[in-house]
Amino acid sequence: MQVLTTREALISWRKKAQGHVGFVPTMGALHEGHLSLVRQSLTENDWTVVSIFVNPRQFGPKEDYERYPRTPEMDTRLLQNLGVSAVFMPSESEMYSPEDEFHISATRLSRLWCGGYRVGHFDGVALVLTKLFHLVMPTRAYFGEKDFQQVRIVEKMVEELFFPIQVVRHPTVREPDGLAMSSRNAYLSPRGRAQAVALYKALQYLHALTAQHQNTAFLIEETLRYLKENYPDVEVEYLAIVDEHSLEALEHLRQSARPRALIAAYVEGVRLIDNLPLSPVP
Ligand code: AMP
Question: Is a pLDDT exceeding 90 seen at residue 68?
Fold first, then answer.
């Protein structure tokens, strides 16, 4: 496995890689969720490139950029064992310059849900992915449904800006109790970890309710009541029922052929997200 730290090294590696190239962009602190994307890429492409870059532009000033977990030695060992062709681990100055002026922004999709609370977050994601896509020139790029709004924004960006890349979605990988795997789970104490399963439990509770109720205001209110009663330490930022494609809120499940519930909540000050597809009204 080639460990590449400069754009120049990546570009020259890419020139030699003939055939299909799969790309898995990450911020490192790799867990089974990331590795599962990597395995899919390995089966579908001749070469797989993984990037590890904690992108400062997608963190707000009061967010966890400084304390975000960084485990480069462990990450490279895991990727090497899987048979990854190359890992790209650039420094901040390799990706950004103080003279940079450009900025990629979606007018609507980036401002909904997480984007409303993490202002500028998705612009930072779009910018770093634009740069990485130009360097890696992948055939396919792999994204987890765990970050559902992110994968929709990437799909829209690739389509609208004519990137010749196929975006591949990978289902959310969960812990045995249902908690979506996330590098941020490492911040939780054992008590917080036990409370964190609340997000998935709430989504399941909501999903079960849809057999009887399709009015989304009712579903949300009832699920919030369930959360408050069973997981008092969990502070919900938003719970929404949206159309999976547009990410617009629904009033009634019958308004969408592909409804999905999205949740963001804080546990011990750690921001966690999750989502679940809902059954459409027949
Ligand atoms: P991150 O390192 O958090 O930026 O994540 C890198 C990629 O891994 C993104 O496409 C995420 O959606 C994906 N990912 C992270 N956690 C999971 C998970 N539990 N299941 C599936 N994909 C995931």
Answer: yes
